[in-house]
Amino acid sequence: MSKKSLNYFVVMFIFSVCLIGVLCLFMGLFFFEMLFSVGWLLIGISLLTSCFIIIKNIISKKQTATVEKVFPIISFVLSFLLFAILFTMCVHANYRKYYSNKYTPLGNLNMLSSALVAYAESNQGFLPDAKSWCDELLLFDPNLSKINFQSPRDFNNCECDFAFNVNLSGRNLSNMPPDIVLLFESCGNWNLSGADNLLAKEKKFREYIKLTYTDLSIHDYWYYAKGVRDSNSYEHRPIKWR
CA-CA distance, 40 to 85, in Å (whole number)? Predict the structure, then answer.
């Protein structure tokens, strides 16, 4: 292979790596977050390799003709690379901003808790049945979908990543204290409900879980302290199920 062909092969290889990196960035945005890091790595390799070739050809006086022919292609690769980085950063920032409150564990927990309270308000204060609470919320709130009942960080493919306090099944919300557990993070089948039994089950996999009270306040339940942390005194208080 001649030097001319080798140079063109190297440039096209750099362009291909750069293009694969950009594709990984976009796939990482919407599918697998790990591909996002892989994309940045490939783009970084392309950038460093392009810079190395440019510097090497400029320093070498014997390859002036080659530089004149190869430099436009390398410039195109670098321009495309810069555009891809800037465009992906903008898309990624908007993506995170839009989905941060909608498709995250905290965002979904907040949406489901608010939907439960709204359901009770429109049903003379009564909460749904624990055996069918997911189905009833989907019928009640058209803004909810099954994705809201799942956590993006769930690697067990559970049907439902949030559990309804079974002690509140069909009860009147208006007569309850504000510090009763309403929903909490867990993992199980559709229409998941329970109390201490599910809480103990999750202890094997987590240091803490997020939960909401009947007043819609969100708290962190720490297993080592067996309670939620008070924001003022930083002491841990036990939770109430009924």
Answer: 9
Q: Where are the domains of the chain?
A: 3-99, 105-237
Q: For residue 222, what are the β-bridge partners?
A: 208, 227
Element (H, E) at 239: none
Q: How far apart are CA 72 and CA 66, in angstroms?
A: 11
Token representation of residue 55: 């510097």
Cβ neighbours, 10 Å, residue 83: 11
pLDDT of residue 229: 77
CA-only gyration radius of the chain, Å: 27
175-207 per-position pLDDT tens digit: 899 999 999 988 889 999 998 888 777 666 678
Local structure of 224: helix, strand or coil: coil
Instruction: Specify the pTM.
Output: 0.57
